[in-house]
């Protein structure tokens, strides 16, 4: 091989091989001359990989469980067994996707062996000719186990063993965020580099600042690879998801990538379904920490034979959890309960749960129509977002079904305006409505330091949250006021006469009991309510 070989020439040869379909080594030999063995030795020296000459070797034992034949062809690679050792044979030393695969499967650098593509192609061709296709079908019974085994596992020891600084950072961030009980991870691009933040108990907490714009790009690219997103697209938003195993639990992560002035930001929602599902088995309204009054109202509304119960509040205020707690309490196995959600965040035994899939045409409205043909008794709609969904939900409540749903509004009275703006007739709406509950989650003082800040609460002074709520129950007079489009002032006065406790009053009760601070109740409730 010519001694003037360099990386630029290799990249050009690689492009030519990809476009022509020829083996990479064949293109290099055409350009540079020399023998195949000389070429392999030069590649090994240049890219600092051990090499292996496959010609003349006996039949190698290929591990198709770790790397299926389709991945072997895609990567131009194969995993082979040599005694008790595992070797990754590959022919493209600059294939970044293969490098990430090797890191994910914990194959040490010293066991990644460079071979010629033509030799590897012959190995795979011989393998395919002797492999019984039917065995793959018969082995499908083990597909679930193999899928679990293919999930990347993140642990402290594996983080320490990872050679890539970017992969170590991403894995460490995921591991620590789960340990901190964060709901979201924020990776924010700045002019200097990257800022890492967690959302804990509903509040953003700064974790680390990393310098280097290039470092920011590499971290976002790693997240995209894990989420199977387009790493070359940096101008438009992208959404994806991935799964890893941490602390012997399979954790789902929902990813949102957004372009910004300084590059791209990523927000990663943590969905620990195994942990949540175990909590769901014993989830009740008592678990959420409501005061006795709103808890009794929610239980009463959830026990009605038909009608509609609405839970309102901003994103992250615990609306869905409250609905699940109510459904869990009434789930006695004697009623058909069906939910449609975006996404299904908790899994509840004995409940048919349907995920929204807009790409396939399954919206809340379309799913709700189908649910009504499935003989339900009780229906949960994850969120009412539009007039069509609202109309169908109301009709279901008017025809003998108990409907639970959420809607974004600031308080129970703003819900009335939301439905009016959706074009829903007020009389029809209140005829179906049993009641509305508005809720917030208020951080409470850390029980270790009582608000002064300690390692247990990461110096914030708060640890955990309690739910507060205001409840508007429908009766004939209240329905008449709403149906006649009475002013919000009159509706509020009627609610006060019925003993409603506003959100601010519930928050102030926590303050009086020494459970939280003035700053915290000002953060989550409006002072003039």
- Total strand count, please? 18
Task: Give the number of helices.
Answer: 23
Q: Could you say which overall geometry the principal axes of the C-alpha atoms support? A: elongated
Biggest sheet, spatial arrangement of strands: 5-9-10-11-6-7-8
Counting helices, strands and paired strands, the structural category is: alpha/beta
- Based on the structure, what is the oligomeric state of the protein chains? single chain
Rg over CA atoms, rounded to whole Å, is 29 Å
Q: What composes the largest sheet? A: 7 strands, mixed
User: Which spans of ≥5 residues are poorly predicted at pLDDT below 50?
Assistant: 132-149
Q: What is the CA–CA distance across the termini? A: 81 Å
Our estimate of the beta-strand percent is: 15-25%
Summary keywords:
529 residues; 7-stranded mixed sheet; 42% helix; alpha/beta
Protein described:
The protein has 529 residues and is an alpha/beta fold. Helices cover 42% and strands 23% of the residues. The protein has 23 helices and 18 strands. Helix 10 (165-179) packs across helix 11, helix 16 (364-372) runs parallel beside helix 17 and helix 19 packs antiparallel against helix 20. The model is unreliable at 132-149 (pLDDT under 50).
